[in-house]
């Protein structure tokens, strides 16, 4: 029999037991949590150690990449990157240089300095700029020189000597060293002095530009042709008195007040894309001792990319309205570049197409990629007295680090840089020139290798 006062202690003992059990359970829970925290702390310390090691390796890799960038892509001086290039040319053809025209080979081929150039690029916050100056054998000129602003929406404004937005890309449809016939009539890779605005809206890429003048004449032996891109230029002619040349005077044209608009519609994404576009150009031609004129051009173009395969096509119509008495032969106008001017047809169609394939070579340590290509372009002239001027190029471009090499076999019946043996190059007025009357209309070839190192 239990004592009454002992029975009164049952609830207290029960409660004490429950509290003791709960305390013991809590003590076990805290100990377990403590052990888990200690384990996680050790894991975190190990992870931090591994992260520090990985970051050190990444910093070392970035340092090596930065050094490679300095070596291959120029020297960085704050927001300015300075670089350049040197190119050497090997030429072989079935004809000889006969006068002041550009070198075209012969005599078993020859090697000559193509160009030496200095580049500078400014990238400071949203301010941008580009500068390029080139030296050739006997002449030199400014290629590019502009300052600009990159807007937050991706649009870009450029002011200075900049590329005219005409055609499907910077070099038209071409991948080769010869570019294509659009270049030689001033409708591809043309540099002029003005202002250009580039923007994108949805699938559209738009370009608007106004050019006050061409890039101008720089340092050379010609009257007005020491420049990179082909423009209408002035030339010096004789003044006769009593049947004798008593003085000389400057004739010709200067480009001014040119307007450009280009629209490109982009279809697809990734490795399979199509860019369909149209380009428009109109400008004035200020005459020197001849009547003023004007010029215009319109072009439809397309670039199709399927993985590494590219097909580029373009069809252009251009006209230059000038005083037909400016030259001894009608429907010709002197265009000049590379310190040399030659008469060119004032009205023509230009069809052009190219096929190229970039083959990457990660298995070769000495080669990044090779890009074989075949290109065709032709100046189809309105004047029946002028022969058309076609150019076909079969070649490949080879890239390795800072090296970029062109190997081209060009066939042409009307390109000054491929040439026609026996042409009379002594007088700009004779109208024989390849881009103009093309009097001989004979096919010749030129094998060309251009070795370039870009730094």
Could you characterize what this model shows?
With 455 residues, the chain is an alpha+beta fold. The protein has 2 domains: 4-59; 79-454, Porin (Beta Barrel), CATH 2.40.160.10. It contains 3 helices and 22 strands. The chain has helices spanning 4-7, 10-73, 181-184; strands at residues 75-77, 80-93, 110-124, 127-136, 139-150, 156-163, 191-201, 204-214, 231-232, 234-241, 244-269, 272-288, 293-306, 309-321, 332-337, 340-345, 347-357, 359-360, 369-381, 389-400, 403-412, 444-454. The longest helix has 64 residues, at 10-73. The protein is elongated.
Gist of the model:
The protein has 455 residues and is an alpha+beta fold. The chain has 3 helices and 22 strands.
What are the secondary-structure elements, in order, as H or E?
Answer: HHEEEEEEHEEEEEEEEEEEEEEEE
Structural class: alpha+beta
Poorly predicted spans: 4-16, 18-23, 56-72, 422-431
Looking at the overall shape, the CATH architecture of the largest domain is Beta Barrel
Strand content: over 45%
How many domains, in number, for the residues? Answer: 2
């Amino acid at each position: 029999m239990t004592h009454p006062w002992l029975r009164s202690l049952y609830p207290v003992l029960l409660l004490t037991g429950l509290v003791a059990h709960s305390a013991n359970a809590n003590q076990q829970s805290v100990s377990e949590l403590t052990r888990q925290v200690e384990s996680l702390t050790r894991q975190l310390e190990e992870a931090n150690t591994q992260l520090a090691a990985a970051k050190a390796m990444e910093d070392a890799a970035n340092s090596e990449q930065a050094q490679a960038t300095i070596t291959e892509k120029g020297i960085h001086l704050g927001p300015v990157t300075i670089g350049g290039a040197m190119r050497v040319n090997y030429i072989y053809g079935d004809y000889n240089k006969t006068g002041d025209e550009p070198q075209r080979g012969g005599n078993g081929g020859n090697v000559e300095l193509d160009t030496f150039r200095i580049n500078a690029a400014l990238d400071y916050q949203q301010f941008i700029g580009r500068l390029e100056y080139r030296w050739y054998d006997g002449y030199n000129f400014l290629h590019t020189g502009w300052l600009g602003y990159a807007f937050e929406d991706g649009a870009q404004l450029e002011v200075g000597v900049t590329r005219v937005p005409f055609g499907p890309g910077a070099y038209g449809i071409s991948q080769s060293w010869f570019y294509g016939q659009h270049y030689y009539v001033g409708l591809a890779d043309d540099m002029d002095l003005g202002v250009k605005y580039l923007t994108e809206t949805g699938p559209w890429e738009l370009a608007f530009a106004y050019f006050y003048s061409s890039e101008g004449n720089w340092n050379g032996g010609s009257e007005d042709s020491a420049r990179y891109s082909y423009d209408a230029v002035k030339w010096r002619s004789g003044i006769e008195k009593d049947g004798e040349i008593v003085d000389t005077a400057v004739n010709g044209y200067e480009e001014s007040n040119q307007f450009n608009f280009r629209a490109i519609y982009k279809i697809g994404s990734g490795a399979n894309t199509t860019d369909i576009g149209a380009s428009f150009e109109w400008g004035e031609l200020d005459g020197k001792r001849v009547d003023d004129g004007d010029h215009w051009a319109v072009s439809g173009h397309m670039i199709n990319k399927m993985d590494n395969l590219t097909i580029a096509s373009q069809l252009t119509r251009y006209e230059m309205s000038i005083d037909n008495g400016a030259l001894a032969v009608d429907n010709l106008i002197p265009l000049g570049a590379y310190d040399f001017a030659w008469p060119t047809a004032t009205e023509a169609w230009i069809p052009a197409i190219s096929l190229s394939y970039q083959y990457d070579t990660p298995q070769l340590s000495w080669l990044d990629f090779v890009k074989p290509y075949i290109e065709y372009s032709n100046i189809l002239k309105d004047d029946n007295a002028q022969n058309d001027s076609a150019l076909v190029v079969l070649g490949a471009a080879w890239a390795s680090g800072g090296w970029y090499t062109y190997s081209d076999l060009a066939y042409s019946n009307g390109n000054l840089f491929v040439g026609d043996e026996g042409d009379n190059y002594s007088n700009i007025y004779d109208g024989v020139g390849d881009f103009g009357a093309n009097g001989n209309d004979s096919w010749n070839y030129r094998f060309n290798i251009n070795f370039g190192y870009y730094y």
